[in-house]
Amino acid sequence: MSHDATPAVPDTAHGIASAVRAGRLKATAVVGAAISEISLRDRAYNSVTRILGPRAIGLAEQVDRKVAAGEDPGPLAGVPFGIKDLFDCEGETTTAGSTVLRESAPAPRDAAIVERLRLAGAIPLATTNMDEFAYGFATDNAHYGITRNPHDTTRLAGGSSGGSAAAVAAGLLPLSLGTDTNGSIRVPASLCGLWAIRPTQGRLPKAGTYPFAASFDTVGPFTRDLADLKVAFDALDMHGNREPAPPELRVARLGGWFAENVSDKLESAIGDVMAAFGSNEIVELPEVARARAAAFLITAAEGGALHLPRLRAHASAYDPATRDRLLAGALLPARTVYQAQRLRRWFREQAYVAFARADVLVAPAVVGEAPRIDQPLIEIDGQMVSARANLGLYTQPLTLTGFPIMSVPLKTPGLPVGLQLMALPGKEEALFAAAEVLAKAGLAVAASVPG
């Protein structure tokens, strides 16, 4: 993020917070610069749906008053952040990317995850675009338009948290919040070249979050900087009990399903990653195709059940593509959903077995670079198939585990590609330790801000 005023606003969240806490920079100046950047540049990306200007300025003034009084405003003092438009923001209507909810009453308070960042001194500045009701991997929204990838605006940003990812990738904001049900953090983070984390299922609160598939939904942050991801996660986790990373990390690659259809560029980068850990260990999970199908069925069933009453009354108000998938999910037989849930439990048990030989498992996040908007296709098993339906090829099966997964931006030529690092529940510190190894080796770094 840049601004003509002096002093310049740092590009990182921790840089902004350090300057604000030291009194070198006013939080109001940071917020003003961010509003100007969004107003000037976001028309190229369509990442932001609303600027929360008056409230943001008021909160920034509170931060500045604390600094002037010698009080500590928090580890994210003055850091503006974006909010996927399914998190409640006090005084705003939560639309979840749809016009169906636009007449709903404004939220009486912030979602828990928004409040935790605000208590750390960060400032909610904008709501961000998303797939309607988070059902998609493209952020191609019939009501609010498509979000474009800042690294090539002819390409998809990914979804469903694409607006949050694009705003950070474009340098409009240093931090944003998203949700991940089947890959909605991991896919856009990979395509936009960002750091992000889907924490252990249930570790962070979902209160005030409009659900998609409640038994899968997880919340987490996007950043361009690994240090920023750490400070954001610390603030969101409110310094809960942490299990330290093992002194000697054992790292293995997920093979089988996760080694098929990988682009040459990504395959080469994964080879470098494994070499950095001095490992050639490969672990395979069984029945991954069935696990992905189970995740799809459970998601469809839960989403369909949630929306069925409203669909009966207002079906025409939905994006037709979203409506049809929700209706199909609502019609799934109970026996089918039960079998999917049984497979879910079994697959999670198999994932625990895989960690007998590793502390961290490595897998691609997507098959390759972001697909073009005018040709939203990716190659799977030699055939060109819908990107919107298949960008979660590697993320969706791992959803069944509920394990923590970090998205790592790989340093490669051309457009961004990304990696998934997965650990056992509660072992986020192992992910950060592995990420630090890759960052120090120069193999993992957020793609440079365009412009």
Automatic annotation (TrEMBL):
The keyword Hydrolase applies. Residues 30-431 form the Amidase domain. Transmembrane segments: none annotated. This is Amidohydrolase, AtzE family. It comes from Tanticharoenia sakaeratensis NBRC 103193. It holds the Pfam family Amidase. GO terms for molecular function: hydrolase activity. It comes from the Bacteria. Keywords: Hydrolase. InterPro entries: Amidase (IPR000120), Amidase_dom (IPR023631), AS_sf (IPR036928), Carboxybiuret_hydro_AtzE (IPR014087).
